[in-house]
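Exercise 7b. Backbone tokens:
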């Protein structure tokens, strides 16, 4: 059984950012942000290519096959583990653990109070099975359809061809019904201490 003990280091709020206790923590936060930027940038480029080549149904394969490979590539290159998680997971490999679930629920509470999800992030040292690891989570906000195609596969009115492909690849999919501005989930970065 996994045991989690979290020591918060950073909580980014819309109005201000509390600084972590030391330079090492700041370095880990900066590395986490860089990893997320790299991962998100590569994934966005791959999705853009797939959309041009074959439309949204073709792009689903990018999320299914390419996204994990990009996450592995960035993880290996940067010496950490990066992924995505959500309260409404599509991929069973992305289901949040207890600590991640708690942070995602806090993100939802903050959004309900009017905070911009694009500015939400949390860093903490978490003890898992007696070992400490640094974790950084950054909320993923659903953009309007005009800015990104995410709602085509995660929105409320999904094209039947897209829905059929999603059911085939993800029979237990929960990651639909989102609107622009909702929190789709979060990037999660883990670094051993």
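Sequence design result:
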């Amino acid at each position: 059984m996994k045991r989690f003990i979290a020591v918060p280091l950073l909580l980014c709020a819309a109005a201000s950012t509390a600084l972590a206790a030391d330079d090492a923590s700041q370095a880990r936060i900066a590395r986490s942000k860089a990893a997320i930027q790299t991962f998100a940038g590569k994934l966005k480029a791959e999705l853009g290519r797939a959309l041009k080549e074959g439309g949204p149904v073709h792009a689903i394969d990018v999320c299914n096959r390419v996204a994990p490979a990009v996450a592995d590539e960035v993880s290996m290159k940067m010496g950490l583990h990066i992924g995505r998680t959500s309260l409404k997971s599509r991929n069973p490999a992305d289901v949040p653990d207890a600590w991640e679930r708690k942070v995602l629920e806090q993100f939802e509470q903050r959004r309900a109070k009017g905070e911009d999800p694009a500015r939400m992030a949390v860093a903490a040292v978490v003890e898992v099975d007696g070992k400490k690891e640094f974790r950084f989570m950054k909320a993923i906000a659903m953009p309007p359809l005009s800015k990104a195609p995410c709602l085509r596969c995660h929105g409320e009115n999904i094209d039947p061809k897209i829905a059929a492909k999603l059911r085939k690849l993800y029979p237990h999919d929960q990651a639909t019904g989102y609107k622009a501005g909702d929190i789709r989930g979060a990037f999660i970065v883990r670094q051993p201490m």
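Instructor comment: Residues 92 and 107 are 21 Å apart (CA to CA). Residues 4-192 form one domain.
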